[in-house]
Amino acid sequence: MNYTFEQYQQSADYIRSKIGAFSPKVAMVLGSGLGYMGDIVEEAVAVPYGEIPHFKASTAPGHKGRLVFGKLEGVPVAVMQGRMHHYEGYSYEEVAYAVRVLKLLGCDTLIVTNAAGCVNTSWKAGDLMLITDQIKIFMESPLRGENLPQFGVRFPDASHLYTPALQDMARKAAGELGIALKEGVYMYFPGPQYETPAEVRFARIAGADAVGMSTAPEVIVAGHCGMQVLGFTLLSNMAAGILDQPLSEEEVLEAAEACKDKFSKLVLSCLKQMG
Ligand code: HPA
């Protein structure tokens, strides 16, 4: 199924009826462990996904499932506390639906965060990575189907999905905070099973530094509609096969919890520079 432009507008209109004249500039998709940043938004108005026409629920653990509008570091933001994943049964179009709605509400920048497996063996679990590019070659694009020209062109350029100027901003912020920020390529896998060791070796040969089950669809849609994008990955665990131990959700959530201070400081510092 393809959503129509009118459906995106209906979602935006409903949210508009809740937030009045407030105009968010930066949309944020918070991944595992960072969802709490939605709770520190000032002058917050929260809108549960379930209330918004055409929105899907977020069922992943640690994902609250609501949009929070307000200010962070003085910047008007729209925070997605919880995202949709393909492994939950949603199509890629559904996974990225909210991004277009937030664009209609005035957001021109998207900040994405996630937890992912570390493929680069020079790094370690707990490191933070600035996403410089992504690989999503399996399964269809969120842009598959009729193109909606109100959002962008049929064949969008993807040379700089992650905005170079925002990457510079992140490097500067990390330097000022004394955070050793790694940089690399995020490779998307659909999940929900973690990758096999052979798939992780494949990802490494393909040029990936991290593997994860989110983010790439939303970023494709954001690029299509001309949004600037900044992305961060918390390398919550060494990817499969690197250490002689099984991967678990508990490990991911524990790492996310342990790193949330430095992660949120970095994101907030970037926001401050945007403001
Ligand atoms: N693989 C895929 N997704 C993940 C991982 C991983 O190792 N860790 C956290 N999310």
Commentary on this structure:
This protein is an alpha/beta fold and 275 residues long. It has a single domain, classed as Nucleoside phosphorylase domain (Rossmann fold, 3-Layer(aba) Sandwich), CATH 3.40.50.1580. It has 7 helices and 9 strands; from the N terminus they run H-E-E-E-E-H-H-E-E-H-E-H-E-H-E-H. Strands 5-8-7-6-9 form a 5-stranded mixed barrel. The longest helix is centred in the last third of the chain and has 26 residues. The radius of gyration is 17 Å and the shape is globular. It starts with a helix and ends with a helix. Hypoxanthine binds next to strand 5, strand 8 and strand 9.
In this structure, how is the largest beta sheet organized? 5 strands, mixed, barrel
The number of domains: 1
Secondary structure class reads alpha/beta
Mean pLDDT across all amino acids: 93
- Sheet-strand content, in percent, reads 15-25%
Rg, please? 17 Å
CATH superfamily heading: Nucleoside phosphorylase domain
Number of strands: 9
Helix content: 25-40%
N-to-C SSE string, H for helix and E for strand: HEEEEHHEEHEHEHEH
**Largest sheet: spatial strand order:** 5-8-7-6-9
Bound molecules: hypoxanthine
Number of helices: 7
The CATH topology name reads Rossmann fold
Query: Low-confidence parts, pLDDT < 50 over ≥5 residues?
Result: none
CATH class: Alpha Beta
Query: What is the CATH architecture term?
Result: 3-Layer(aba) Sandwich
